[in-house]
# Entry
Amino acid sequence: MISVATAGGTVTSYSPRFSLSGMTGTFPQPVIDGLKTIQGTQGPSDVNTVKDAKNNPADAGPAGPFNVDYRSQTGLTKYAPSQPIPPTKITAKSATPLYPTSAVVYAKTWLPVPSQVTTFTQSGTFSVSSRENTASPAAKPSDDMQKFLGRWKD
# Structure
């Protein structure tokens, strides 16, 4: 699980290892060799980059695999950055893409089995707060002429 801290940085926590029984099938040799090196059921140690973000505020932005360009990632899992927080005022005169586009190549033959299994999208790291409007409402017109003229007020 990857948790994002409000102070910057992330904490990646791993669960303990477990075993399955009654399964059939085979593993490739590299997996069998890797399994021989594992001892016990304790998972990897947590990876805490929050303390690093406090020591180095310049690097306190999104950390870990979310910094790697999506198109450069390989493997079963890909990591996508989160959508940026929208501004409170629109100043742009034309729309520009946040990330570069990718080329489209149409298949002319059968494609291999996809190697990507899942994509993790970075969690939003902002919060929204609101409060009660304590201003008193505007007074209502008291006579008919004020009501009539009030129809065209902007």
